[in-house]
Amino acid sequence: MTQQLAIPSLKTDDRFLGFLLVRSAEQRTSSKGGKYLDLTLCDKDGEINCKKWDGTVPPPKQGSVIKVAGTVQEFNGRLQMRIDQMRDARPDDMVDLSLLMPCAPERAEDMLSEINRTIDRMRSKDLQAILREMLAMCGDKLMYYPAAQRVHHAERSGLLHHTISVLRAAEAMLPLYPFLNGDLLRAGAIAHDLSKTAEFLSDEGGNVSDYSAEGQLLGHLVHGVTQVREAARRAHVEGECVLLLSHMIISHHGLPEHGSPRPPMFPEAEMLHLLDDMDAKMNEMEGVMRRTPVGAFSEKIWTLDRRLYHPAFDEGNGLPEEKENVRDAYSGLL
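Above: the chain's sequence. Below: its structure in token form.
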């Protein structure tokens, strides 16, 4: 595969020629009645909305790779690519999918092993049994499912990435608030989003094509409660821990307008809500910073209802030592 510009490095008026992964593609009708293709294309570092002003071109399959020639423009404060030519990738193109597929920064096997080690260390045998059943219900989907279709951790193994991040944040909080029940908070961190494997439909590349019927009619919070109850039944577990874990799942979005019919009503549930919200926002902001030039403001981020600024501030008036080392390591490749 020939070298091409990464999506976060694109600027207005850049010409792009290279291979991209299809996140979504559909034929639409303009206000003047003309047909066009609306696409979201990505590489491993970012994604960009694209338009092909030709209604005769069929939309490429979601999750496929296409070769694109186009020009980067700005529309409503956001970069957009006008596609001049496009075609499906061919075997002789020898496309390196690792350059196109957004993936979690850690191996799925390593993240899952860390989760299982955490479960093994728990003192509560009941919570251990419930969590093991819940993981078994997810099956192989857990290895590649993203945490969302678009917003945060929308990447291959993104669900594990989000889960392990919330779990690690929970471990960091426990010494600061020793009155919290550690096993209960850890269990909530592990279990809170597992039912996303039933909420939407994803291929093994982590590309979500649509929401499932359960996802649209119930959502992962309600389905998550039924998953806890079913796991407890299979594990022959009864008692308050089933109720508490169910409440943590159904309340972890915090507010009714965000999907939670109950607010967090005990400290571990509140902490889970805070950590989940923090990790989702930090992941989304990290993506925005990657595509926003230093010293500039991003487009409006609709999920956050604001624009973000990419600070140019550098206290050391240069790269920190660890960044210098990274730069030196790659200097021969540039």
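The CA atoms of residues 174 and 182 lie 7 Å apart.
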